[in-house]
Amino acid sequence: MAALALAGALSCSAPPEPTFDEQVLAQTAVGHTLPRNFLLGVTTAAYQIEGGNTASDWWSWEPGRFPTGRPHIAEDARSGRAVDSWNRWTEDLRNLRSLGANSYRLGLEWSRLQPSGPDSWDESAAWQYHQQLEALRAAGITPMVTLYHYTLPQWVADRGGWEAPEALELFRAFALRAGRRFGDVVDLWLTVNEPTAVSVAAYGGGLWPPGVSDNGRALVVLGTLVRAHAVAARALHTGDTADADGDGRAASVGFAHNITLERPASGAWLDSVVASSGDQLANEAVLRAVLTGSFDLDIPGAPSVHFVDPSLRGSLDFLGVNYYRRDRLRGDLSNLGRPAFTVPTDDTASASDWELYPQGLYDALLRLSAFRWPIYITENGVDDAADTQRAYVLRSHLWAIEQARAAGVDVRGYFHWTLTDNFEWHLGYTAHYGLFSVDFADPALPRTMRPSGHVFQEIARNIGLR
Ligand code: BGC
What is the mean pLDDT of residues 40-49? Predict the structure, then answer.
C-alpha cells in the first residue's frame, strides 16, 4: 500500500515528458501559454547581413585557401554586399513587423564603428545604427544587441586578435563606447556570441580566421573570451546608464552560449569519454566559470587550462542560449581531440547535417535552470532552403520552451535564426536559414517570406502579439 502511495506521489510531482510529435504540434496552439511580455523575435549578425564590412578580419580571410587548395568560403563566395541590409534595413524592419515579432537581436559591427584603430570612431555609422534602434523601438520591437559575433576589426587581428595582450582592454573600450552611444535605446546586451564555437572553429579547427589548428590555443582563447565577456559586461553597465524601456534597469547583459547536446554514438566506453569531455567543453566549463570565477578545462588531446578570475562572478544578468542540435560522438584513440560526428540518416538531419532534436532544448533548459539565470533562447533555426523542416522547428522548440516554463524554468524569449538567407560564414551562400528567402541573382536582392513565416505569425498570434 505504502509503496503504491509513494509511486502515486512521485508520478504526480514529476512533470510529464512532453511529446514532440509533428502531427500533434501542428494541431496545437503553440505559444498560447506564453505571456505578452515574452520576447518573440529573430536574430541576425551584422557581418552576415549588412554587406561592405571591408575593415574586418573576415574580409581579408574570405579570398584565401586552405593548404589543401579548398577555398575558405564554399563556392569561392565573398560576403560582399551580403544581403545589403545596411542599405535595406527599412525593408528588413517591415518584414520583422509583418512576422509579428516584438523583439530583434542584431549586431553592431565593431570594424564599422572603429575601422582603423582604437581612437577611430565612425560617427556616421553610429548615427545609422542609432536610427535603426530608434525605429525598432518606435515599432514596439525591443532590440537585443550583440557586440562580438565572430568578426574583429583588421587592426585588432593585426595585433594578434584574441591572443593579443591588449585584446581585453580593446574590447572593454569598445563596449564602454557602445554602451554610452546606444544605451538610451538599448537595455538588452550580449557581449560575445558563442565563445566556444568561435574559439574552436578559429583556433582549434583552423576553419575561420585566423585559421589556427591548435586545440591548446583554442582552449586558452576560450578562457579569454569568457574574460572578454566579463570586462565588456562591466563596461556596458558603466556606459549604459539610460533606462530605455522604463523597467528600472538601464542594462541587462548576457552572452550567447551555444548549448549542444553531446551524446555518445554507441555504448562504447570511448564514445562516452568523448561525449562527456565534449559536454564539458561545449556546455559546462563556460557556465561554471561565470558562476564560480574558476575556469577549468581538462580535455583529452589538449593541454589543460585552469585559471581563477573573481571578476567573472556576477558578470551575467541573463543567459543567452543558442540551441540547434544534438551531436552523437564517436571517439578515436589515435585522435582523441577530434571525435567524429554521426550524421542521422532520417529526416531529423538538416541540410547541414545537424541533428534536429527539440526535446534537447527542453532537457537543456531543465538542466540550465539550476544556474538560476533568466534565460533567452537567442538563436535556434535550421538550414532548410526547401522549407520542409522549419515549421516543425519553430513549433517544436517553442513548445519545448512552454513545457520548460511550465516546469518552472525562467525562459523569457525566443529569437529565431534568422530573418533572411545570408552569408553563412565558411558555407558562404550555400546554407539557407531565413524566414525570408533572398533572390541573389537579382541585384535588388528581393526578399520573399517562406511558408514557415506564417507559422511564426501564428505563434505570435497565439501569444497575443498580433
Ligand atoms: C551562429 C550564426 C550562424 C548560425 C548557423 C550560429 O551558431 O551564431 O552566426 O549563422 O549558427 O550556422
Answer: 98
The mean pLDDT value of the chain amounts to 95
Query: How many angstroms is it from 226 CA to the middle of ligand 1?
Result: 19
Q: Is there an atom of ligand 1 within 6 Å of 197 CB? A: yes
Is the predicted pLDDT of residue 2 greater than 50, yes or no?
Answer: no
Q: In terms of residues, how long is the chain?
A: 466
Instruction: Report pTM.
Output: 0.95
Query: Which residues are within 8 A (CB) of 448 and not within 5 positions of it... i.e. 6 or more apart?
Result: 436, 437, 438, 439
Contact 273, 300 (CB under 8 A): yes
Q: Which residues pair with 43 in a beta bridge?
A: 105, 417
Q: Residue 347 has what pLDDT?
A: 87
Best mutation site among 207, 422, 425 for ligand 1 pocket (most ligand atoms within 8 Å of CB) = 425
Q: Which atom of ligand 1 is nearest to 256's Cα?
A: 8
Gap between the Cα atoms of 113 and 118, Å rounded: 10
Question: Helix-strand-coil percent breakdown of the chain, rounded to 5?
Answer: 40, 20, 40
Query: 447-449 and 436-438: which strand pairing?
Result: antiparallel
Residue 210 preceded by cis peptide, ω within 30: yes
Which residue type does 38 have? F
Take residue 430 and report the three cell numbers written for it: 550555400
List of E strands, 123-227: 142-148, 188-193
Q: Which residues contact 156 (CB under 8 A, 6 or more apart)?
A: 57, 110, 164, 167, 170
Hey, which bits of 265-346 come out as E strands? 294-297, 305-308, 319-330, 340-341
Q: Cα separation of 238 and 245, whole Å?
A: 18
CA–CA gap between residue 463 and residue 39 (Å, rounded): 10
Task: Determine contact, residues 433/421, Cβ cutoff 8 Å.
Answer: yes
H/E segment holding residue 453: helix 452-463
* Backbone region of residue 364 per phi and psi (left: phi > 0; alpha: psi in -120 to 50; beta: other values): alpha
Q: What whole-number distance in Å separates Cα of residue 397 and Cα of residue 364? A: 12
Residue indicated by cell numbers 542540435 = 325
Q: Which of ligand 1's atoms lies nearest the C-alpha of 433?
A: 5
227-252 residue pLDDT tens: 999 999 999 999 999 999 999 999 99
| Rounded distance from Cα 432 to ligand 1 centre (Å) | 11
Whole-angstrom Cα distance, residue 304 to residue 282?
A: 15
Contacts of 109 (CB under 8 A, 6+ apart): 46, 47, 50, 53, 56, 151
Cell of 34: 506564453
